[in-house]
């Protein structure tokens, strides 16, 4: 089939195609000159301008680079990715499979073998569901993500101080006073399963339970007991109250102890509380002195009672003799340090002064003796 062209045409000399650095291209039917490339424009780097035709051109460095990046070239192997090829051609797939297998094996070993320390226990879950508890030693489970193991330290004693920021912590006492109270709570884990699954945030739960128990106990305690002699009883009551709260929550936590670090008056009333403290010290000192005096009095009374019992035993054996001896001993104790006047019957001088050193002789100037 022949296709007719338009009726008008340009002159032949105007239809001549100019020389192009990309090479002369023929019309759709092909090149008129023998030896011209009929496949399209010529590559300027393949045949330099002015070079003789018919001689094959050497591949340039750019051609070599493009050939390598497109995966061409020797070796017989196909590259995995742009410009990357394993050596050895057909062994590339085997190398990739070996590398992947080694990674999978390492992953299985690392997530299936578990070493539990002597102070630890491991909580095992399969797809998030509790499966068991691992004891200290070597243990094996399914690899992740099928199984997961959470290691819990069950022997260490944890503690926290409240308030954490060192600020005031005002608590209302039973007699309507405010006291600044600081304390320390010591606790440990006794059931890892409950510790992991029953509480969302165990540490915060322990702090909240401690604050609740402290306020409940102090609200039933007087100020004197809080800042004085009642600290030991408060610590015992707070420990018991905290343990009850955590047991109700099934937390798996045991409270080791609670210690009151600071129990003082607020800064605004510190001076008044100092005076109260001084008065309490004086009160305690007076009580101590009274107790000592009472002990001395009791000791003296007990001694006198024991002496009386000894005399009474002698009295029962010889009543008359014992009575007369007691009379003489009593009069001797009464009269030994006093001036004495003895009145005798008639016929004897009525006045006979008794002075230390015996009776003085009558003075001769007064007439001498009768």
Please characterize this protein's 3D structure.
It is a single chain. This protein is an alpha+beta fold and 370 residues long. Helix content is 38%, strand content 16%. The protein contains 8 helices and 9 strands. It has helices at 61-69, 92-112, 192-197, 202-218, 223-227, 231-248, 270-317, 319-335, and strands at residues 113-116, 120-126, 129-134, 137-140, 147-153, 158-162, 170-172, 178-189, 253-264. The strands form 3 sheets. Strands 6, 7, 8 and 9 form a 4-stranded antiparallel β-sheet that branches. Strands 3-2-5 form a 3-stranded antiparallel β-sheet. Helix 4 (202-218) packs across helix 6 (231-248) and helix 7 packs across helix 8. The longest helix has 48 residues, at 270-317. The chain is elongated, with a radius of gyration of 59 Å.
Structural category is alpha+beta
Report the major sheet: 4 strands, antiparallel
Gross geometry: elongated
Mean pLDDT: 76
Rg result: 59 Å
Count all strands and give the number. Answer: 9
Query: Percent of residues in beta strands?
Result: 15-25%
Q: Uncertain regions: pLDDT < 50 for 5+ in a row?
A: 1-11, 13-17, 23-39, 72-83, 366-370
Number of helices: 8
Gap between N and C termini, in Å? 207 Å
How are helices and strands ordered from N to C? HHEEEEEEEEHHHHEHH
Helical content class:
25-40%
């Amino acid at each position: 089939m022949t296709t007719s062209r338009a009726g008008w045409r340009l002159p032949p000399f105007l239809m001549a195609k100019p020389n192009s650095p990309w090479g002369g291209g023929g019309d759709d039917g092909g090149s008129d000159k023998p030896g011209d490339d009929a496949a399209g424009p010529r590559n300027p780097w393949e045949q330099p301008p002015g070079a003789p035709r018919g001689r094959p051109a050497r591949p340039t460095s750019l051609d070599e680079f493009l050939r390598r990046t497109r995966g061409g070239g020797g070796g017989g192997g196909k590259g995995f990715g742009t410009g990357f090829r394993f050596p050895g051609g057909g062994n590339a797939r085997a190398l990739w499979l070996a590398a992947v297998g080694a990674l999978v094996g390492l992953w299985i070993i690392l997530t299936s073998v578990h070493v539990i320390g002597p102070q630890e226990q491991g909580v095992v879950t399969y797809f998030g569901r509790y499966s068991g508890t691992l004891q200290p030693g070597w243990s094996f489970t399914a690899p992740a993500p099928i199984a997961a193991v959470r290691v819990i330290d069950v022997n260490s004693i944890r503690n926290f101080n409240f308030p954490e920021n060192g600020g005031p912590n005002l608590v209302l006492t039973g007699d309507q006073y405010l006291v600044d109270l600081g304390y320390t709570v010591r606790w440990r884990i006794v059931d890892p399963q409950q510790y992991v699954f029953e509480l969302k945030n165990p540490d915060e739960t322990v702090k909240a339970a401690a604050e609740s128990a402290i306020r409940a106990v102090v609200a039933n305690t007087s100020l004197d007991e809080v800042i004085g002699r009642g600290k030991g009883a408060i610590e015992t009551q707070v420990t018991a109250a905290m343990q009850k709260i955590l047991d109700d929550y099934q937390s798996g936590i045991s409270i080791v102890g609670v210690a009151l670090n600071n129990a003082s008056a607020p800064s605004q009333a510190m001076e008044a509380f100092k005076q109260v403290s001084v008065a309490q010290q004086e009160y305690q000192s007076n009580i101590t002195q009274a107790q000592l005096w009472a002990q001395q009095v009791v000791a003296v009374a007990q001694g006198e009672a024991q002496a009386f019992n000894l005399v009474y035993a002698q009295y029962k054996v010889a009543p008359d003799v014992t009575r007369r001896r007691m009379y003489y001993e009593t009069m001797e104790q009464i009269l030994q340090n006093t001036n004495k006047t003895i009145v005798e019957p008639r016929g004897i001088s009525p006045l006979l002064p008794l002075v230390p050193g015996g009776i003085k002789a009558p003075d001769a100037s007064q007439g001498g003796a009768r």
